[in-house]
TrEMBL record:
Ranges of residues in domain Bacterial sugar transferase: 3-172
Keywords associated with the record: Membrane, Transferase, Transmembrane, Transmembrane helix
Family, as annotated: Belongs to the bacterial sugar transferase family.
Claim: Membrane is one of the keywords in the record: yes
Name the record gives this protein: Sugar transferase
Signal peptide annotation: none
Amino acid sequence: MIRFFDFIFSLIGLVLLSPIIIVLLIIGYFDTGSPIFCQERVGKNKRPFNLYKFRSMHVDTKSVATHLANYSAVTKYGAFLRKSKLDELPQLWNVLLGDMSLVGPRPNLFNQVELIQERDSRGVYQVVPGITGLSQINKIDMSTPQLLAETDAKMTSQLTVVQYFYYIIATVLGKGSGDRMIRG
């Protein structure tokens, strides 16, 4: 049932938001010359997939987890994208393809070894990763691997259609925030 909602909502979202996506692509092109950011992430059953986002950092920024990145790498336009959460819009394509869900554990990088161990021991990789979920609306990010894995496991073991809609609505209404970054 959730895959059905994911497919329908991501398709509708991509169609309805296409004018905004096109404008953001054009602005992003002028900001960095490369408006889409593609990064390999850990998917269901630890299979790799390419996650798409609007680029919010300079093109030459090292590929690390957000909480390990320096805030100075974020462009002014990128700061706007992150604050408004518009940088996540291209992930609707990932949802449409089935690599992600609207609701699920945020997909991590393969070099986040501690988080992989914590999630693996709790069965978190048995589900499709998502754009938002319990951890995101409670401001739990990847800088606390054990707490994140525990919260993700709790959400995935108890996820209902009602909770699915709650997490989406809470995120759209601004609850939660992105990963912390190093200031300086």
